[in-house]
Design a protein that fits this description.
It comes from Caulobacter segnis. This protein has 329 residues and is of the alpha+beta class. It contains 6 helices and 11 strands. Helix 1 crosses helix 2.
Length: 329
Amino acid sequence: MLRPGPLNLLTDVPGLSVGNATDEAARTGVTVVRFPGGWTAAVDVRGGGPGVRETAALSPENGYAKLHALTFSGGSVFGLAAADGVTAALSQAGEGFLVRPDTPRTPIVGGAVLYDLANGGDKAWGLDPPYRALGQAAFAAAGTAFDLGAVGAGRGARAGLVQGGLGSASLDLGDGLVVAALVAVNPVGSVFMPDGETFWAWPFEIDGEFGGRVPSGPARAIEPMPDDSRLAGQGRLTEGANTTLALVATNAGLGAGECQRLAMMAQDGLSRAIRPAHTPFDGDVVFAAASGAVDLGQDGRAHRLARLGSAAGDCLARAIARGVHAAQG
C-alpha cells in the first residue's frame, strides 16, 4: 500500500519550502511556496472567476515556464500584491533570470487569490493593503514544516457553508518518486456529503488523516447543488466570491507540456472532494511544478505520467479535506 511522505505535506517533495503569514485583525493571510533555482511549471485554470498572476508566462509555448515562487493569498485583487513582495525578496536573494549582467535578477513568481473580503475582518486599509508585507513575511517564514487550517491563505476561507482552510497531503510512489499537493479551500461547493459530516474525499483518506469518518449508508449524490438559500444568505452566490487554489508538485523530471498535463489531471481532485467544482462562482486554478530530480526515462513514460497525474488528483482531494478538517478543529 502506498503511503504519505514523512510529513504528509507538500514539503515531502525534496527542495520545497512553504511559509504562512496571517493577519488576525483582517482575518486574511498569505502562503508562499519557494522553488529553489526555478522549477518547470504550468497552470490550469477552470473556474469562472480567477484572480491570477504570471499564468501566461507558464504556457508551454512560452520561454519562461518556470516558477521561483508561488503565492496564494486572501484579499481578492488586493492579494495579488503578495507576489510583489516575494519578487523583491527573491531578487535580493539572487534568485531569478539574469537578462543582462547589469540589471536585477527577475524571478517568476506566480500568484492566485481568493475572496475573503466579506468575512468580518478589518479591511479598512485605505491605500496600504497588508499583502505585500504579508508576502515577504511568509517568504521569510518558509520551511519544511507548516501549519494547516485557518492560517495563511486559508485564514479567511469558507468551504460552502463551513470554515475553509489551508490543506496539504503527499504520496510516496516508490523508486524515489514523490507527489504532493497544497490547497487553499474556499469553494462555493460543499466538501461534505449530505450527512454534513462525511467528506466527499473519504475513499482517498489514509490513516484517518481527516477524521476517519465513512458513510453510514449508500453514498448517494443526487442533489447537484447545496442549499442555495443559505449560500445566498451568506453572499456566496456571487461571481468571484469563491475559489480553490491548488499546487501539485513532484520531484519527477517533467517538461512544460507534461507539467500542464499534470495540472489538468490534478483538477480531478477538486471534483473528487468538492461538489460542485469549477462553477461560475469559483476561480479554481491548479499549478503544477516539477524539480526534475528523478528521471522518468522514455520507455513507458506516458504511463508513468498518467500514474503521477492520478496520484496528484488523489493528493489534492485529500489535501482539501485535511484543510477543512484542520480549520474546524
